[in-house]
C-alpha cells in the first residue's frame, strides 16, 4: 500500500520579551542582516516576518547537527519579531496569537522583567509552547566567545570565575521562572521537554548559541508539534500592516499561516469604511533571509504557499485594517457572508477605542500603533478626543481645533510616527494648534507632562 507523504509548512515562531533584551539583534544574527541599526532609536515598533529556509538552518548548524543526527523535515522557520516596549501589548498579543511556537528572550544579566512576565502570561493564555533564549551571555565578565561550538562545550573553555557567574545567573533565572510557576532547565540537561522549558544561552553579538537555538527549535517542532504544521489548503491569513510603497501604491503585508494565494485571486479584507473587495494584482516577497519590513528588491510570484510573509498589491487597499483576516473568494463562496465576517472583525477592534468627550487628538500610522498609543495615553491619564490613522491632513487640524472651545489645553495633535502635510502644518500655525510629533511613544511622555504641567 502507498502511504501518502504529509506536506509540512514552516512553523510560525514569535520572538517575545522585555524591551532591549536583544530580540531584533538575535534575528539579525540569524539572518546576517542589520535591522536593529536602522530602527528609530533601536526600538521595534512593528511586527516583521523573516523566512529562514531550511538550507540556511542546515548550514548554520552543520558544526554539530551531525552529532545530534538531526533529520530536517520542515521547509524552514517563519520568525516574527515583536516590540518589547510596554505600550505594544497589542502587537505582542497579535504576534503571539499567530504563532505555533515562541522564543522568549531574557537578558541573562537582568533576569525576569515586566514584559517578560507579560509575555509568559500571553503564551500561557494561548497555550503556546516556547523556549527561552538567555541572551547577552557575552556580558558575563571575562567571557570568551566560542562560536560554532555546542554551548555546553563553550562553558568548559571559560575561566572559573566566568563559568561561576554564568552558573549563578542561570540559577537565578530558573528560580525566578519557578516563581512564575514554570519549570526550566538548560536545554542540554532538559530530559523532560514536556514539562520543562528549555533555556538556550545566546549572544546576538558574538553569535554563540545561535546554532543551538535553531537546532532546539527544529527538534522541538519536529518531535512534539509536527502535526500542528501539516500544510492544508484551508486559507488562514492575517493582515499585519498597510503601507504605501513607491511604484506599487497602497500594499498590505500579510502572514499566510495556511493555504495558498495566487495572483488574480479575488479577496475580501476588512476596511475602516466597510469590507473591501478587490483582486490580487501582484504577490511580492523580499528575497529569502530579508525581512518584509525592509525596503529591498521584491521578488514577484505567481502563487505562494504557507507559511510565508507576503506583500499584496491590489487596488483599493487604502482603508484596510491591520490585525484582521484576509479572505479569498472562490466561485462557490457566498461573498456577502464573507463580507459580514470581515465587518464583524473590524467592529470588534474599533469598539475598543473610546473617543467620546474632550481630549487630545491622536494620529498614528497603523491601527496597531494607534491601539498601543491609546493604551499608553490611558496609563498616563491623558484623555483622547479624536483619533485618526495615516498622515496629518488639514482636516485633522480642524478636528483638533474644535477642542479650543471645549477645553483649550486639549487643542493639540499628537502625531505618532506619521507624516505632517505642509498644508496641515500651515493651518496649525495659523490656528495656533500645537502638533507634537515623535517617532517613539515614550518621547511623548515628558512633552505631555511639560504641556499639561505648564497649563495647569
Ligand atoms: P525592542 O524591540 O525595543 O523591544 O528591543 P530588542 O529586544 O529587539 O533589543 P535590540 O535587538 O534592539 O537590542 C537592544 C540593545 O542590546 C542593543 O544595543 C543591542 O546591540 C544590545 N544587544 C542585543 N543582543 C546583545 C547581546 O547578545 N550581547 C550584548 N552585549 N548586547 C546585545
Ligand atoms: Na531595542
Ligand atoms: Mg526589537
From TrEMBL:
Name of the featured protein: Eukaryotic translation initiation factor 5B
Subcellular location: Cytoplasm
Domain Tr-type G: 8-226
Protein's organism: Polysphondylium violaceum
Family: Belongs to the TRAFAC class translation factor GTPase superfamily. Classic translation factor GTPase family. IF-2 subfamily.
Top-level taxon of origin: Eukaryota
Residues of the full protein shown: 423 to 878 of 1017
Annotated coiled-coil segments of the chain: none
